[in-house]
């Protein structure tokens, strides 16, 4: 008999959470948002890449209204909010639960989940923007899922409803590529209040980019000697491809919101410290963007 499709609990029904929920619903999974405001459902209006909009409604449960165990959890809150969002529900998560971490950076869930819980990382080069209830898919690129488990049985079917979704045996590779792009582009565009393309066009920013990138490559190479290094050209290619965009960190910084610096450059600085590798440029940038 085929096992039932997962029932997902979603922490963070913002841009990425809405994208994931839409594809999961399309594939026949069910999704409940965990958020204060029990009983109030969330109606989402998601603009698809072809310009059409789709409207769907997600049930909402307050953390204290949850009763049974959480078997499948999708975490799509911004990294600084992970602990606050997870703490009321961790007692519902058990060693056989599957947690999908849909966040930029690394380490944001470290120490927050019960021992033994499998974390599948989702790395996406897609882009979704907007504010509840309106969300717009502005770029539909590859999304990789992978972690310490084999490809789940439901994945193939989900793939047929989620364009460019891939299962990745070695999630480190896309995750670290994305990390290096975020290490360079996000803080520089935030601090200098410029769109991504300025990293390529402005010689002073490009020099700072080289410094941040070289430190990131040194740390990643120490963690995994097969890391190819020399990431600058691919980082500049991302900055060129998104030249007119406001990075997520620039947007957060402009709004006075806490940024994801701790999970991006902060993670790198922590690794550098552990490994005894100097990372003064990243250290400085973390200090500048930490309120
Ligand atoms: N948007 C994008 O294109 C991409 C984003 N990412 C990454 O995905 C992650 C999510 O980003 P994004 O979706 O853009 O962020 P959003 O700000 O759009 O969404 C975050 C959501 O989390 C909710 N939230 C915050 N705190 C809690 C809480 N305690 N309990 C329940 N819900 C909570 C917010 O609700 P409320 O608004 O009510 O506070 C909001 O709906 C980030 O790590 C980002 O870097 C990765 C690739 C692309
Ligand atoms: C790749 C980049 C920099 C695109 O803007 C991004 O992921 C972000 O803004 O967080």
From TrEMBL:
Ketopantoate reductase N-terminal domain span: 9-137
Pfam families: ApbA, ApbA_C
GO molecular function per UniProt: 2-dehydropantoate 2-reductase activity; NADP binding
InterPro entries: 6-PGluconate_DH-like_C_sf, 6PGD_dom2, ApbA, Ketopantoate_reductase, KPA_reductase, KPR_N, NAD(P)-bd_dom_sf
Enzyme class (EC, first level): oxidoreductase
A GO biological-process term: pantothenate biosynthetic process
PANTHER family, per the entry: 2-DEHYDROPANTOATE 2-REDUCTASE (PTHR43765:SF2), 2-DEHYDROPANTOATE 2-REDUCTASE-RELATED (PTHR43765)
Family as reported in the entry's similarity comment: Belongs to the ketopantoate reductase family.
Record-given protein name: 2-dehydropantoate 2-reductase
């Amino acid at each position: 008999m085929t096992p039932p499709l997962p029932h997902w609990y979603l922490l963070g029904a913002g841009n990425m959470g809405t994208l994931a929920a839409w594809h999961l619903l399309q594939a026949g999974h069910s999704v409940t948002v965990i958020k204060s405001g029990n009983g109030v459902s969330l109606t989402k209006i998601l603009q698809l890449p072809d310009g059409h909009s789709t409207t769907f409604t997600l049930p909402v449960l307050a953390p204290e209204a949850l009763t049974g165990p959480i078997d499948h959890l999708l975490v799509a809150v911004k990294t600084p909010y992970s602990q606050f969002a997870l703490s009321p529900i961790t007692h519902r998560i058990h060693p056989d639960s599957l947690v999908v971490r849909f966040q930029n950076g690394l380490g944001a869930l470290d120490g927050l989940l019960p021992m033994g819980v499998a974390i599948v990382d989702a790395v996406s080069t897609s882009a979704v923007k907007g504010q509840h209830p309106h969300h717009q898919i502005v770029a539909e690129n590859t999304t990789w899922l992978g972690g310490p488990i084999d490809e789940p049985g439901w994945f193939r079917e989900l793939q047929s409803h989620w364009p460019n979704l891939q299962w990745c045996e070695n999630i480190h590779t896309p995750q670290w590529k994305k990390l290096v792009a975020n290490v360079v582009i996000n803080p520089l565009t935030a601090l200098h209040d410029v769109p991504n393309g300025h990293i390529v066009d402005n010689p002073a920013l490009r020099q700072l980019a080289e410094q941040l990138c070289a430190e990131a490559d040194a740390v990643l190479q120490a963690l995994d000697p097969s890391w190819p290094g020399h990431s600058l050209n691919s980082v500049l290619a991302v900055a060129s491809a998104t030249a007119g965009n406001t990075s997520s960190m620039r947007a957060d910084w402009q709004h006075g919101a806490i940024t994801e610096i701790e999970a991006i450059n902060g993670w790198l600085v922590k690794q550098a410290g552990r490994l005894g590798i100097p990372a003064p440029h990243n250290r400085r940038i973390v200090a500048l963007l930490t309120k």
